């Protein structure tokens, strides 16, 4: 684009989501004029965007389009009937989905490293991205969170490598394929596969089909990395696979293998083809993060980074905001903010914390906010996922679509509360004793984080 040309104007609907906000930052780096609208324009995403010269509009209105943008990128949270979507269609404006725009304008001619799976995508993508950065590769990236080593969720990068969180959620109201079908990774991590996103997938087989579509796009000279224990991923690969596959394991059979030196996963040895590669001694815990690390090390090796250099990077990895992030430490209480919102993620997070803190008291507080949770799909598994907590409180807001008291049939350490004030009082009552309070939600949880910071401090 020459200096005489007017920059193309892209307008993004749903701009404050982590994916669309990241896409906006990349478009701005490419020289586009970028604006966007959202129902909830608030920090930190609004601040991150406005600092980059991106104009934000609060609420979806037809008049947001009066500047007649050259292209409208429509997020997957918007449907027919939305006034701004209707205006796009009625005015005949050009529109596309976020994943398609990214594929056509950014990922072409890039070596894409994609991280897919029901759990651990954001953390593993951040690990892999940091390994590349630490080793001088200067990758582009788009991550569904803010990795603390970078402080931003996306950038264009300065190399031929692009690291992306490959989400199985759909693209837009007019494209119901999974986002990752657009990305065509050369290096693909398939972390795991479970039933989730019950609002768009009828059953597990429907998700497997989308993962199979992803596998069909990976070149024969590429690489697929997956845990040896993941049965549902293996079933996807049995549908057809044309790409070499390497498998990871902890104290089992696998191309890449970890041997735990600490049961909480904070220290472990790494082996490749039974050859010792070195030791990881880092800040993270949980066996799930050991698997994430093995996958990131294997993916980095595929582009030429030695395992020893990848492990050196992991020792300085700072994880992602809202992944076991300590937000308060006061009078014996430690409060963690964690994004876990699926029973398996909740279980593995609590297991890692239990191994780290021993017999200390753990109080788990869960907001069932994801679409799958709100539909009551995981009733029994949610109850059982909280077994490592001494006490668990599940928040029941007024608009939840099912009665959480069903959980009480499956566990005796659970309380149901519909009042955030009562939850805060319960946490404050623990002051003076040793207690680890784990807040788990993929939303704002009614502002409980800010309240606890203020009241405990």
UniProtKB/TrEMBL annotation:
Obligatory cofactor(s): Mg(2+)
Transmembrane feature ranges: 7-27
Domain Mur ligase C-terminal: residue ranges: 322-443
Catalytic activity: UDP-N-acetyl-alpha-D-muramate + L-alanyl-gamma-D-glutamyl-meso-2,6-diaminopimelate + ATP = UDP-N-acetyl-alpha-D-muramoyl-L-alanyl-gamma-D-glutamyl-meso-2,6-diaminopimelate + ADP + phosphate + H(+)
Residues engaged in binding ATP: 117-123
A Pfam short name: Mur_ligase
EC number: 6.3.2.45
Top-level lineage group: Bacteria
Stated role: Reutilizes the intact tripeptide L-alanyl-gamma-D-glutamyl-meso-diaminopimelate by linking it to UDP-N-acetylmuramate.
PANTHER family: UDP-N-ACETYLMURAMATE--L-ALANINE LIGASE-RELATED, UDP-N-ACETYLMURAMATE--L-ALANYL-GAMMA-D-GLUTAMYL-MESO-2,6-DIAMINOHEPTANDIOATE LIGASE
Family: Belongs to the MurCDEF family. Mpl subfamily.
Name of this chain's protein: UDP-N-acetylmuramate--L-alanyl-gamma-D-glutamyl-meso-2,6-diaminoheptandioate ligase
UniProt organism field: Methylomonas rapida
Lineage: Bacteria, Pseudomonadati, Pseudomonadota, Gammaproteobacteria, Methylococcales
């Amino acid at each position: 684009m020459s200096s005489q040309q007017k920059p193309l104007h892209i307008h993004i609907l749903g701009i404050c989501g982590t994916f669309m906000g990241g896409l906006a930052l990349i478009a701005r780096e490419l020289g586009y004029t970028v604006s966007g609208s959202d129902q909830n324009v608030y920090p930190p995403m609004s601040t991150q965007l406005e600092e980059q010269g991106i104009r934000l509009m609060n609420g979806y209105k037809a008049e947001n389009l009066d500047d007649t943008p050259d292209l409208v990128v429509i997020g997957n949270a918007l449907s027919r009937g939305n006034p701004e979507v209707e205006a796009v269609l009625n005015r005949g404006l050009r529109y596309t989905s976020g994943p398609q725009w990214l594929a056509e304008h950014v990922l072409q001619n890039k070596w894409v490293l994609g991280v897919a799976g029901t759990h651990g995508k954001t953390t593993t993508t951040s690990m892999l991205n940091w390994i590349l950065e630490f080793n001088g590769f200067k990758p582009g990236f788009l991550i569904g969170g803010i990795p603390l080593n970078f402080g931003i969720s996306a950038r264009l990068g300065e190399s031929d490598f692009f690291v992306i969180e490959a989400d199985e959620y759909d693209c837009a109201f007019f494209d119901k394929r999974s986002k990752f079908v657009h990305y065509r990774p050369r290096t693909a991590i398939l972390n795991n596969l479970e039933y989730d996103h019950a609002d768009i997938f009828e059953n597990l087989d429907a998700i497997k089909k989308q993962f199979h579509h992803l596998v069909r796009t990976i070149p024969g000279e590429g690489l697929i990395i997956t845990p040896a224990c993941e049965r549902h991923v293996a079933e996807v690969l049995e549908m057809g696979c044309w790409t070499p596959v390497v498998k990871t394991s902890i104290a089992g059979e696998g191309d890449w293998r970890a041997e735990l030196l600490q049961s909480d996963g904070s220290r472990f040895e790494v082996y490749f083809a039974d050859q010792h590669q070195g030791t990881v001694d880092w800040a993270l815990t949980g066996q799930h993060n050991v698997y994430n690390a093995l996958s990131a090390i294997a993916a980095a090796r595929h582009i030429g980074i030695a395992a020893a250099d990848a492990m050196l990077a992991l020792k300085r990895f700072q994880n992602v905001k809202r992944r076991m992030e300590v937000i308060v430490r006061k009078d014996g209480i430690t409060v963690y903010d964690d994004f876990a919102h699926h029973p398996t993620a909740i279980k593995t997070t609590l297991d890692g914390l239990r191994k780290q803190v021993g017999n200390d008291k753990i109080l788990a507080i869960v907001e069932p906010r994801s679409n799958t949770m709100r539909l009551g799909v995981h009733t029994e598994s949610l109850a059982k996922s909280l077994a490592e907590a001494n006490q668990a409180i599940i928040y029941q807001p007024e608009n939840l679509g099912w009665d959480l008291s069903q959980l009480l049939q499956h566990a005796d350490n659970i309380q149901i509360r519909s009042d955030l004030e009562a939850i805060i009082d319960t946490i404050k009552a623990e002051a003076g004793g040793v207690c680890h309070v784990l807040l788990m939600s993929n939303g704002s949880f009614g502002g409980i984080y800010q309240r606890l910071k203020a009241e405990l401090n």
